[in-house]
Design a protein that fits this description.
Shape: globular
Strand order of the largest sheet: 1-2-4-3-5-6-7-10
Low-confidence stretches: none
Number of strands: 10
Strand content: 15-25%
CATH topology: Rossmann fold
Radius of gyration: 17 Å
Structural class: alpha/beta
Helix content: 25-40%
Number of domains: 1
Mean pLDDT: 96
CATH class: Alpha Beta
Largest sheet: 8 strands, mixed
Distance between the termini: 20 Å
Number of helices: 9
Length: about 240
């Protein structure tokens, strides 16, 4: 995968102003092979942008899929996060959660659409995250279905608050969701305690299934680490971009 064809790519840095967060947020913008401003592209929006690019090797993986497998080229937007306030922004009970969700939907998406040839239908946007990043991604989709209906959740931190949010919906047949969790994620230490992510994902899966969400749910050998998620990212990308 270290072939020069895969590592030669265009990644831009953007400073996205936010009145919701009262700050400027850094975003990495990946432009796919053959990028042409006269065309239009689906867009993959990612939480934990730095981690998705560095540890998930997302740019290299996308380039490889486009060049070798004919997957549709997509723009990737990775939003960086200050790890010191990550839980406050990504957790439903966090002090910055509502402001962050509003920034993402009401400021980031329009910012990208003004500057890049991004398709504007909800079927051409994907929102992705790992752990609590998966949590906030699902909540944004539930709160802004006109923007997002396709979600990639890598070992999502789907706890009681998220299940309550799902339970408030009667029909989620419009929602397309890729859920991955590791069979070894039964004792995961977090800043808020130790959790059985496998059981939490199973419970959340049942709720989503009962509301007829369009689900691809996978349990595989793996721990709560990027080494696991990186290997499974191509399957998630193929699901929505093939």
């Amino acid at each position: 995968m270290d072939d020069n064809r895969y590592t030669k790519r265009t990644i831009k840095k953007e400073e996205v102003p936010s009145s919701r967060l009262n700050e400027t947020r850094h975003a990495r913008i990946y432009l796919p092979p053959g990028y042409n401003e006269l065309l239009s592209y689906p867009v993959l929006y990612c939480q934990d942008g730095e981690d998705f690019f560095n540890f998930g090797r997302l740019a290299t993986q996308m380039t490889k899929l486009v060049l070798d497998e004919g997957v549709e080229p997509a723009i990737i937007v990775g939003v960086d996060v200050d790890k010191a306030v990550r839980t406050e922004e990504y957790s439903p009970d966090g002090s910055r959660f509502n402001a962050y969700c509003r920034f993402f939907a009401e400021e980031l998406v329009p910012y990208i659409q003004e500057r890049y040839p991004a398709r504007r239908d909800s079927g051409s946007r994907i929102i992705a995250g790992d752990s609590l990043g998966g949590t906030v991604s699902l909540h944004i989709a539930l709160d802004y279905p006109e923007l997002f209906r396709r979600v990639i959740a890598l070992s999502g931190a789907f706890f009681a608050g998220t299940r309550e949010r799902i339970a408030s919906e009667n029909d989620l047949s419009w929602l397309q969701l890729y859920m991955l969790v590791g069979l070894q994620e039964t004792d995961v230490s977090t800043s808020r305690g130790t959790y059985d992510f496998l059981e939490e994902n199973r419970r959340t899966h049942e709720l989503l299934e009962a509301r007829e969400a369009d689900l691809v749910y996978e349990e595989k050998d793996g721990k709560h680490v990027w080494g696991f998620w990186q290997q499974e990212l191509p399957a998630a990308l193929r699901l929505f971009l093939d």
